[in-house]
Structures are given as C-alpha cells and as structure tokens.
Amino acid sequence: MAKMYRKLAPCGGDEGGHEWDDDVYEGIRKVCVGQDFTRITYVKFEYVKEDGQVVTREHGRISQQPQEFPLDPDEHIIAVGGSHHRPDVTEMITSLVVKTSKGKQSPLFGPKYLLRRLAGTDFVFEDAGKKIVGFHGRSGNAIDALGVYFEHDSLTTSLPLYKLEAQGGKEGRVWDDGSFDGVKKLSICQDHCRITYLEFEYE
Q: What is the rounded radius of gyration, in angstroms, for the C-alpha atoms of the chain?
C-alpha cells in the first residue's frame, strides 16, 4: 500500500544558513525547541520509523536550555505555526507552536519580549487534520526557515496518467521527460520576445 505525502515550501528566510530535509517518517514522538533573546535557534525532532525505531534529527545551535513537547504514542501533530521576522541581517523564525490530534497545544516557543514588541509575519501549516510526518528548512546559528510534510490518504493502486497535447509551434525537436512523482522546481529563461529555456527538477 503506497502512501502519499505533500511537501509544503518553508516559511521564513531564504538567505542564511543551509538547507536540510529530514524526509518522512511514521510519526513524531517529541519536539524540542531552543531560543536566544531574539529568535528560535534550535529544533530537535524525535521521529518514529515504521518498524518502531526512533530517529533523532537536530538543526541549528543550542543557546538557552531547549524546551520539550512530548507526544503520546497514539498522538500526532496536525498543525505547526509561528512567526518569522528580520531581527538581524536575515529573516529568521522567531516563534513556534505545535498542535496535536488530541487537541493539545505546545507552549509558544520563542523570546516573549520580542513577540510583544515586533509582530513579525505569522504562518501556519495545517491541512484539515492531516498528519505531519516530517520537517525541512534552513538553519545555521539559528532556524532561518521551516517547512513540513503532510501524509495524505494511502493508495492501493496508482492513479491513471494522462498525456495532454503540447501547445505552440511545430518547429524544433520533440522531447518527452516521462512521468515522475512530482515537480520540485521549474526554472525559466527568456529573451526579448520568447521563452528560450526550461529546466525541471523532478521528484
């Protein structure tokens, strides 16, 4: 039985730190969040694989003592929200909050005095109670950006594929990339009157 996942683009900055991607797991057992005086600096996730093995992934840098938010074995995360702001030279995550399938909510992680002074830009990842099964983002000395993976309904059979006729002219040579699970990125170049280049990054 195949499972479907949806990867949502990260919220926050796209300049500082480096990209990371934890991929997807069966569930999440614990979230740990650290901060300094202006931002979220550290996250650690305890994931559970299908065979029950616990895998830990951590990102950023520990400044103050991180806070923990554990989940029950039959509980999962259904929403992650927070805010991002530019307290320094780059945009960073400044607060985080987690909601679960049992109606519980984590503390609002982040420097409280900053939240009173600077509203920042709010964000939330939520999809009608669907289960969050992984995280990705950017980090260096702090958490620059954060995104999630949602688990969607499982499939027992593959969806049918439909090939639509190409639109445009008949010149040039024919090409066909075939089919993939999804498209991660599309790059386009142009000159003064037309599209001259396409590049697709597939999943």
A: 20
At which residue do the structure tokens 């950017």 appear? 138
Confidence bin at 185 (pLDDT 50/70/90)? confident
Residue range 46-83, pLDDT digits in tens: 999 999 999 999 999 998 889 999 999 999 999 999 99
Read off the amino acid at residue 93: I
- Map tokens 């929200």 to a residue: 81
CB atoms within 10 A of CB 83: 23
| CA atoms of 177 and 30, how far apart (whole Å) | 41
Q: What structural domains does the chain harbor?
A: 2-155 (2.100.10.30)
Q: Which of 23, 31, 11, 136 is nearest to 77 (CA)?
A: 31
Closest CA to 98 of 113, 110, 89: 110
Q: What is the secondary structure of the chain as a DSSP string?
A: -EEEEEEPPPEE-SSSSEEEE----SEEEEEEEEE-SSSEEEEEEEEE-TTS-EEEEEEE---SPPEEEE--TT--EEEEEEEEE-SSSS-EEEEEEEEETTS-B---BS-HHHHHH---EEEEEE-TTPEEEEEEEEESSSEEEEEEEEEEEEESSPPPP--PPP-S-S-S--------S-EEEEEEEE-SSSEEEEEEEE-
Taking the alpha carbons at both ends of the chain, their separation in whole angstroms is 19
Contact (CB, 8 A) for 73 and 98? no
